[in-house]
Fold Very-long-chain (3R)-3-hydroxyacyl-CoA dehydratase.
Amino acid sequence: SFTMNMYLFVYDLMQFCGHSWIFTNMIIRFMTFGKDSLADTFHSIGLVMRLCQLLSILEILHILIGIDKSRLLPRFLQITERIIVLFVVINSQEEVQGKYVVCVLFFLWNLLDVVRYTYNMLARMGIYYPPLTWLNFSLCIPLYPLSVLAKGFAICVSLPYFESFGTYSIKLPFPFTFSIYFPYVLKMYLLVLFAGMCFIIQNLFSERTAHLGTGNIKNKRS
């Protein structure tokens, strides 16, 4: 319906504005301060980044209620990957926030999202630019695996701090003999992360073929 289409357009516009601000801010800061800006990336743009990622949870709801025709599982995996790495790994460990990998990760995320939300906004209005369509369904194929590698590296960097501080590790009192050592949880999640990457890459290739291989451009999220 027109109302739902307008709602999705406003949602995409809000995400576009947020990610464009982050992306532009990162570039300007790097051009102004050079490498010194990398260590301060999280503190300068972290709040907006967290708001954008929290807002992206609505995309799962959009698929569940049927106003977005994307596949649920690939989108769910992509969103949860970011939420876990951003809020559980990076946000909880101040020592990790100043690492260069955070800047690399934010750059990859926002480059992908600026293109994706630009494409989505125009698609809501029935406007399709072939170069933008090609970029939307092609850029994610090399950049998504790079972002997964950056996520994995961020988790590996955080492990010593989770071990030292005991963050999220739980040891239940007597008479229970059950405990959760969070570094082990993160190591197991690394396996899930890379297994999910294979599934999502396969989905990205199938979407690219559906939109570009046959020359039929559809209004569908990447």
Notes: The chain is about 75% helix and 0% strand.
